[in-house]
Write a structure and sequence with these properties.
Chain lengths: 253, 285
């Protein structure tokens, strides 16, 4: 389940990056991604510099490179899409190893690949240095609407519970000789999904009841700490350095 | 109200013999009256509580029940007797039928709901329903935070509640990583942190292994609060609650010392209650 994976994304350590408040890291990540996306694609050196910045963060946070590389696999679908671009785009063409490729398409592919990769690595670093609860606290302190923070809180809490329930249902199905090999098995799986939905809905009602019984009035108070000015300065150093790079890239263009 | 250890813990594993002896002589169902003064309102007072669900199904037909402060009472009854419906009346989740409910003298009406829910802590059967926050500590803090408690006072309450259920060292774990017995105890802590007058437990021993069941009993006996325990586990009722009430078809069918009720095979049979094989309460002192 998603939440289960997310628990495992966190990599506990005592680095300065881990110690930064979650809200400052969230803001830094979002700003960094925006700056990267706004950089002109022809400024190849700028993307190299961004990569160096992220490598620096990873080094300070003591996140080993193999771990980051492994997690970058989530990007694979985008890579496939990017690979198609040079073949499908129109316009001026060049020959590379006997293949006729579109120059425009090559630039577009580079653009998607470079920006997506930097964004993915930045999120990987955020997830590896901030646990889920801290992220929720950060979002709440950044004034994300309560209802969304609450929905995410429940997702974090019940993802594994529902995943386990799904697993038990599968085991019970298979224990009675069910084999989901082909399309004919779909109605059975669909009915299981329906049963799971109803169970989860009923659980939702029971959770709500239990919350009301403890005086729930519409807010879930998560307790976090305010970010100090020094923390903001440290966290925002990354997007600030990126912004300088980006501006330089636009000026030199 | 607080939940300091009272020394009852020493009696765990046996029934409360001295109290049982006392009741047989004076015959009253209310025993734990040490330190109770006549002007202290009962923790729970129900008068003629009747309720029908919106679909027309009538679950309660006029329930009268009084539970004194500090008492431990078992609410027994077969499935469908209306036990859960009754429990949901105690903190005003369900209302609108006939009759009245008072908690520590305070009527359960809309204007009092927040205070009523502080005074009545319900521990639901499935701890996964009760524990919904990312960590145990957050969950225990949820109730008192809803009461407006913040800062050091909130931390102190959370620590006290977790210490009372012996989970202090697991405070920062996600509930998902706790054993079932630990989760049930964490659920008890979530209501303890509200410093309630009454704790209502719905099937507290269900799905617990024998060791967790005993640990929970020790904890419940060490709490200085009124306890109403909904259960099918008759030996557990005998161990923890000097007094029992049988709810059957939406009315109170019996009310008396647990040992006497469990020693009456005809009464039990009439209410679809059964002792486990080989268990005879008359043998116990």
């Amino acid at each position: 389940m998603g939440a289960g994976h997310a628990h495992r994304l966190y990599r506990p350590a005592a680095s300065p990056v881990h110690r930064l408040s979650p809200q400052s890291k969230l803001v830094a990540t979002v700003l960094f991604v925006f700056v990267v996306v706004s950089t002109p694609r022809e400024a190849v050196w700028a993307f190299g510099l961004y990569a160096v910045l992220l490598a620096g963060v990873a080094a300070v946070a003591r996140i080993p490179a193999p771990l980051v590389l492994r997690r970058m696999l989530v990007e694979v679908p985008f890579v496939l899409f990017a690979v198609l671009m040079p073949f499908l785009s129109q316009g001026e063409r060049v020959d590379v190893l006997g293949l006729s490729l579109s120059v425009n398409g090559l630039w577009a592919a580079w653009n998607v690949l470079a920006k997506a990769t930097l964004g993915v690595v930045c999120s990987i670093l955020l997830a590896a240095t901030t646990d889920l609860r801290a992220l929720l606290v950060g979002l709440e302190r950044l004034h994300m609407p309560q209802i969304m923070v609450q929905i995410m809180t429940f997702m974090v809490r019940y993802g594994d519970v529902i995943g386990d329930e799904m697993d038990r249902m599968r085991i019970a199905r298979e224990s009675r000789g069910f084999q989901g090999r082909d399309v004919r098995a779909l109605p059975v799986v669909a009915r299981s999904a329906g049963a799971l939905f109803i169970r989860s809905y009923e659980r939702g009602e029971r959770v709500h009841l239990a919350m009301l019984s403890r005086g729930y009035t519409g807010t879930i108070p998560l307790r976090g700490e305010a970010t100090t000015a020094a923390q903001w300065r440290t966290a925002l150093a990354l997007p600030a350095a990126a912004l300088l790079t980006c501006i330089t890239a636009w000026v030199l263009r | 109200m607080s939940f300091h250890t009272t020394g009852h813990g020493a009696q765990v594993g046996t029934t409360d013999r001295s109290e049982d002896g006392m009741t047989i002589t004076d015959g009253t169902p209310e025993r734990l009256d040490a330190g109770r003064t006549p002007d202290v309102p009962p923790s729970l007072q129900l008068e003629g509580v009747a309720y029908a669900y919106p679909d027309g199904h009538q679950a309660l037909f006029g329930v009268d029940l009084q539970v004194g402060r500090g008492e431990r009472v078992a609410l027994l009854g077969p499935n469908g007797a209306g036990k859960t419906t009754l429990v949901l009346h105690l903190n005003g989740i369900l209302a609108g039928g006939a009759g009245s409910v008072h908690v520590g003298g305070l009527p359960v009406v809309k204007d009092n709901l927040q205070e009523v829910r502080r005074r009545v802590g319900i521990v639901f059967q499935d701890p996964d329903d009760q524990l919904f926050m990312p960590t145990v500590r957050d969950d225990v803090a949820f109730g008192p935070a809803n009461l407006g408690i913040r800062g050091a006072e909130l931390d102190a309450r959370v620590d006290r509640a977790l210490a009372a259920v012996r989970l202090g060292d697991l405070a920062d774990r996600p509930p998902y990583h706790l054993s079932f017995g630990q989760r049930r105890r964490a659920a008890v802590a979530t209501v303890l942190a509200m410093e309630p007058e009454v704790i209502v437990l719905d099937e507290p021993s269900s799905n617990l292994d024998p060791a967790s069941r005993r640990e929970l009993a020790q904890i419940l006996l060490s709490l200085d609060v009124t306890i109403l325990m909904v259960t099918h586990d008759l030996p557990y009722a005998l161990e923890l609650c000097p007094r029992s009430v049988i709810l059957s078809d939406g009315v109170i069918a019996a009310d008396g010392p647990t040992k006497e009720i469990l020693s009456d095979p005809d009464l039990l049979a009439a209410n679809r209650l059964e002792l486990p094989f080989g268990f005879d309460p008359r043998v116990l002192g």
